[in-house]
Predict the 3D structure of the following.
Amino acid sequence: MSTPTAPLLKVENLVKHFPIRGGLLGREVDRVYAVDGVSFELAAGETLGVVGESGCGKSTTGRCILRLIEPTSGTVTFDGRSVTGADKQQLRALAREMQIVFQDPYASLNPRMTVGAIVGEALTIHRLTRTAREYEDRIVQLLETVGLAADHMRRYPHEFSGGQRQRIGIARALAVSPRLLVCDEAVSALDVSIQAQVINLLEDLRGPLGLSYVFIAHDLSVVEHISHRVAVMYLGRIVEIAPSRSLYTDPRHPYTEALLAAVPIPDPRVKRKKVHLQGDVPSPIHPPPGCHFHTRCPLAQTEQCRLERPPLKPVGEPGSGHWVACHLR
Ligand code: SF4
């Protein structure tokens, strides 16, 4: 068991490169630098939002944490146990404590299985119930936990709306009573009002079920209300990580400023700095050297920006937990 002060999840210098193979011999001809040295910690009961544009490596990071994708290097530790060094049996035990909710509830639910069978699959795999009665009771309890009804267990995924399907995905993840949920763009495919309902559900479940979340989204507005801290990723790296309030009111990285500038503010008295980014995100196959952001950065670009990777360094009040990777901030 970890001490109360130890993080629940510790990710250190995580790297994932996907080889691109070509030619008759299938030799590696290039590689995609999907995750390029990501480190962060998550406390028990905490929600960390992870945001960035498509292709920034946030989903790959989430999947590497659970080893659904094998990381190239780096370490992941969960409650003091090595995830990256775990063998098959240890990984199976860890899978009971760390679960994922996927983006697309349409694709992630088997259309030929009833909702009861989908939610109950993990109960069978991990032998979590002893009798048929216990199995059925647990499925009903899980469905009711996510706001569905007992009789939904006999229906099929196509009979449900997008929001309801995502609730089924959450019930399935909760079946093993995990302590960590990686929500990989879990609300991105839903309408805004349904997004809010699912986010509220997740927030309501966190305390009573003792959950912690890594909440991955491409939009800062989505993670604002659920996250204690937010990490902003750009081309495989965390460029800023801070407590939510600090990040939203006092962003330090020009990329975070640009993402925030795109978020509509309901209060017209609140003014945000206008930052417009030029061009598209460069390819993760050949990311720019130095600071990956230098090709789009609206700040003065120094020689240092073009040549040296800026390390994450603390900014603001000592101990505020606000870190930024920029040579000029
Ligand atoms: Fe911009 Fe340079 Fe800071 Fe990168 S290091 S964000 S290029 S100012």
About this structure: The domain at 9-97+179-324 is CATH 3.40.50.300 (Rossmann fold). Residues 14 and 38 are 5 Å apart (CA to CA). The radius of gyration is 21 Å. The chain has two domains: 9-97+179-324, 108-177.
